[in-house]
Design brief:
Layout lengths: L3 H14 L9 H13 L11 E2 L2 E2 H15 L4 H14 L1 H10 L3 E3 L7 H10 L6 E3 L16 H4 L1 H4 L20 E2 L4 H11 L11 E2 L8 E5 L2 H17 L7 E5 L5 H10 L4 E3 L9 H13 L5 H7 L9 H14 L3 H9 L11 H12 L9 H7 L2 H4 L5 H23 L4 H13 L4 H9 L5 E5 L8 E6 L10 H6 L1 H15 L2 E10 L2 E3 L2 E3 L16 E2 L20 E4 L3 E9 L6 E6 L3 E6 L6 E2 L1
Parallel strand pairs: 3-4, 5-6, 7-12, 7-15, 8-10, 8-11, 9-10, 11-12
Antiparallel strand pairs: 1-2, 13-14, 16-17, 16-20, 17-18, 18-19
């Protein structure tokens, strides 16, 4: 069998032999598409036509399989596909296998993909001695090829056939509804959320423990207010004797970790990212910061080398060594040396950098007109953002989403009077991965004693005393992609929330934001459809989510309104107190922060 590293090596060699650059078609995307086909039991000859940047992926699939055959190897998915082929095409072998494995037990059955399901069907087609364990309410891997219909239709698919004698047991379903992990309050909330899904086996979790605090939903001003409230929640739990390792924040999108990382670091609270890397350690963020540092005259040689061949400029390892030597001998910083390259100076290899150098100089000339000091303009015009498309649509969307989150953070930080050099220092601190404070000294000796930050998908199978589900809003959970897919996508997102809820043993907090910076712009999300109609007897609310209400007479101002102030600029109305001439208003301004004003004298314009 071929392992994952050798798979990547094989695909890279295959693409190189056809002069296909990795920023045109990334090896991981091609492997992912091939795996998707195999999970569906589709071989190269039967694969659908799939073009990517005028490259025929179906043809590459065939070449990849031929290479594996030449090497006399199979990848992991081939093991399943070829087992199905053997059972289907060789009756004698199939009979021997069925006799050898006359009873089959499957765990996590709700996550089976089509080829796994066909394999089980063929293996158990004679004796029907199949036992599966699974929970359709926890089927959250549709994007990997898992099909929840396999468990939903189990009783129909395996009903007793007339050709079988009476000795064959009939199909039976046994509901395992007792839950030993969570308190009754948490389970009541989980049941209230999931029962809305129509296509499911009817069941309800029953507690075996004494009750605890009711799950709570906090509505925050923005992602930083959200992070601060989360940190206070954890500190309160820690003061009650709960270990950091028994706490977790679960979120739908990895970009949500930025504000959390910043605030937890500021509060000297130990944390780690599970199943991923910190926001400032991600490839696209390190690349974007390197571009931005060159543009803002605060880059060093490592920043230049990081993006010297992104996207591809024909500068290999030898060329990079030459550039590094030329930079060192010049005695200049990277951005200053790049200015010389723009004028035609430097070594011969530097000519390949001249288009980038010219672009940097062009954008820098108008840098004060860009709120992000040219970040997105440089990434777009250099072709970097386009090069990310080689990773495939979903991967590219995720990476670009992270870059847009960085853009918003840069804009926000600059409005606080932070210089580009100071920003780079902040980024380096967050990138270092070092913990802060007394608790950090302890966690360096025991990495288990930290708060866990992870995606909801990553959290499946885990459990914690105290759990925060962050960003429970339409567009995040359910995610916008799922909203676009329709009811099946929304149903899976509801199952994802259910999984998140049932990770909590004793204490559960949900958070939403009235405003959240998305792709560099301020958005005003609505509460997740999954919880906004949950009754107060199941979910405790600190305060209702801000939604437009009847405007204050004459002023036209209402909670949720976008307004403009002559001094503070644009903002969103968060709260109205009192009445008449004594009405006070709380406004979160994009630049000036939170302000409480007398409405009568505020001179606000609704926009």
């Amino acid at each position: 069998m071929i392992d994952a590293d050798d798979q990547r090596t094989l695909v890279k060699r295959l693409l190189k032999s056809r002069n296909i650059a990795s920023d045109t078609l990334h090896p991981s995307y091609l492997l992912g598409w091939i795996e998707h086909c195999k999970h569906a039991g589709i071989l190269p000859d039967d694969a659908p036509e799939q073009m990517w940047s005028n490259i025929d992926l179906r043809e590459l699939y065939g070449v990849y399989q031929a290479e594996l055959m030449q090497l006399e190897r199979m990848d992991f998915s081939d093991l399943l596909v070829n087992c199905v082929r053997i059972l289907r095409d060789f009756p004698d072998v199939a009979a021997a296998l069925r006799a050898r494995f006359d009873h089959v037990l499957v765990d996590e059955y709700q996550d089976t993909n089509p080829v796994q399901h066909e394999w089980l069907t063929l293996l158990c087609s004679e004796h029907h001695n199949l036992t599966v364990v699974g929970d359709d309410d926890q089927s959250i891997y549709g994007w990997r090829g898992a099909d929840v219909r396999h468990i939903l239709d189990f009783e129909h698919l395996w009903k007793t056939d007339e050709k079988f004698n009476d000795a064959v047991a009939k199909v039976g379903i046994h509901r395992l509804e007792e839950n030993y992990r969570s308190t009754p309050s948490i389970l009541n909330f989980a049941n209230a959320v999931i029962h809305v899904n129509s296509n499911r086996h009817e069941k309800a979790l029953r507690p075996t423990r004494e009750d605890g605090p009711m799950p709570e939903w906090l509505v925050c001003n923005d992602e930083y207010d959200e992070a601060r409230k989360i940190s206070r929640f954890f500190q309160s739990r820690h003061d009650q004797g709960i270990s950091w390792k028994d706490m977790a924040v679960l979120y739908r999108s990895n970009r949500q970790s930025l504000a959390l990382e910043q605030v937890l670091r500021e509060e000297a609270m130990p944390y780690r990212i599970i199943g991923g890397v910190g926001f400032f350690e991600r490839m696209e963020i390190k690349d974007a910061i390197s571009f931005w540092a060159l543009l803002n005259h605060c880059a060093d040689s490592m920043h230049l080398l990081r993006i010297v061949n992104k996207p591809k400029r024909g500068i290999g390892a030898k060329g990079q060594e030459t550039i590094l030597a030329a930079l060192a001998s010049s005695g200049l910083r990277a951005a200053e040396w790049l200015d010389i390259v723009a004028k035609g100076g430097g070594e011969a290899i530097a000519s390949k950098l001249q288009p980038l150098a010219n672009l940097v100089c062009k954008i820098r000339a108008d840098i004060e007109t860009y709120p992000d000091r040219g970040l997105i303009a440089l990434l777009e015009q250099s072709g970097y953002l386009e090069s990310l498309q080689a990773h495939g649509q979903l991967e590219a969307e995720s990476r670009i989403e992270n870059i847009r989150t960085l853009q918003g953070y840069i804009e926000l930080t600059l409005t606080e009077g932070v210089t580009p050099i100071e920003f780079m220092d902040r980024a380096a601190l967050l990138q270092s991965g070092e913990q802060m404070g007394e608790q950090a000294d302890n966690t360096q000796n025991n990495q288990d004693h930290v708060i866990s930050l992870m995606s909801l998908h990553r959290a499946k199978g885990l459990e914690f005393d105290s759990v925060v589900l962050a960003g429970i809003e339409d567009g995040l959970l359910p995610h916008q992609r799922s909203l676009d897919e329709g009811e099946s996508g929304i149903a899976e997102e509801r199952r994802l929330l259910y999984v998140g809820i049932t990770r909590a043993e004793n204490c559960l907090l949900l958070t939403s934001a009235r405003q959240r910076r998305v792709f560099g712009d301020m958005h005003y999300p609505t509460p997740s459809r999954f919880i906004k109609n949950i009754g107060p007897d199941v979910l405790k609310r600190e305060q209702p989510m801000a939604t437009p209400i009847r405007p204050v007479e004459e002023s036209g101002v209402y909670i949720g309104a976008n307004v403009r102030h002559p001094s503070f600029g644009e903002g969103v109305v968060l709260e109205l107190e009192g009445g008449g001439d004594a009405t006070r208003i709380s406004v979160q301004f994009a630049s000036a922060g939170m302000k409480r004003l007398m409405l009568k004298y505020a001179a606000l314009e609704v926009i």
